[in-house]
Design a protein that fits this description.
alpha/beta, 48% helix, 13% strand, globular
């Protein structure tokens, strides 16, 4: 592949899950990757025999301060001189009943899933704006449309937040030729996604049965998901590069992945529309009276 068409990717959270598969897909297309994770040794074990001329492994904890993240991104930029695509993939899911987790659980969840996305993206943007070119990918979740599924409320809230942030980025960055893609996967068979125990900062016995039942549902799902993460990441690379199944298609702000995700997002949209239809007659007639 000619250097002119070869993209440089920065991908966070690549030691497992979607990140690991995405690195493999990108390398297979001939592009270059700066792959990051919190634990560099684990990352090296994940890619022991990779094509190192096009793969650079780097430690990056997206939950660190903005200053530390900026330093790491500056290091990533120095490797090949630019970043064409940044993929905000690093994240995890706090499992907590809202009353038991409280604001401390929310802050912990948002530090990685929301503030990490902001800090990594903002550190990359100056060179993209200068070149008037680039792609920002945010890995969200179908869970943002299913916040009623307890005890994953804090996770769903964090993903709803980055969805909204992604839409704002899209409008703010469009004048600079920078594209934004918000990815909303459903259930895919990735490692350790349901491995975290319940977070309880204030134990409320009244929630014991519901919390335990919710944790059991997540545990039962692990390893049985129908979604193939490798196929999902192949499609993501298609979209970013305008190849394969994405060839000739218009750039999507949203990329919903998986049959279950399509069912759930449509169900939520229909539920909102039904409620709006039922209440529109009284909830829209609220302007000042004529002459007031």
């Amino acid at each position: 592949m000619g250097a002119l068409h070869q993209k440089i990717w920065l991908i966070t959270g690549t030691s497992s899950g979607f990140g690991k598969r995405l690195v493999a897909s990108v390398l297979a297309r001939g592009d270059c990757v700066v792959a990051t994770a919190r634990n560099l040794e684990k990352l090296r074990a994940t890619f022991p025999a990779a094509e190192r001329s096009r793969l650079h492994l780097m430690q990056l904890d997206v939950s660190d301060s903005a200053e530390l993240v900026q330093q790491r991104v500056k290091e990533a930029l120095s490797i090949w001189g630019r970043i064409d695509v940044v993929v905000n993939n690093a994240g995890y899911g706090v499992k907590a009943v809202l009353e038991e987790g409280g604001s401390l659980a929310a802050l912990t969840q948002f530090q990685t899933n929301v503030f990490g996305v902001l800090n990594v993206t903002n550190a990359v943007l100056p060179q993209m704006r200068e070149r008037r070119s680039g792609t920002v990918v945010i890995i969200g979740s179908r869970s943002a449309w299913r916040p009623e599924v307890s005890p994953a409320g804090f996770y769903a809230a964090s993903k709803a937040a980055v969805h909204a942030i992604g839409e704002t980025y899209a409008s703010e960055l469009k004048p600079f030729g920078i594209r934004v893609l918000i990815v909303a996967p459903g259930a895919f068979r990735t490692e350790g996604v349901h491995a975290y125990p319940a977070t309880i900062h204030t134990h409320v016995p009244a929630y014991d049965a519901a919390r335990d039942a919710g944790m059991a549902r997540f545990a039962a799902l692990a390893g049985t998901e129908k979604g193939d993460p490798a196929k999902a990441m192949e499609l993501l690379v298609d979209v970013v590069k305008g190849e394969g199944r994405a060839a000739g298609r218009e750039w999507p702000l949203w990329l919903v992945l998986g049959r279950d995700a399509y069912v759930d997002v449509r169900a939520k949209c229909n539920k909102i529309l039904k409620t709006m239809d039922a209440w529109e007659d009284v909830a829209t007639d609220l302007e000042f009276d004529a002459g007031a």
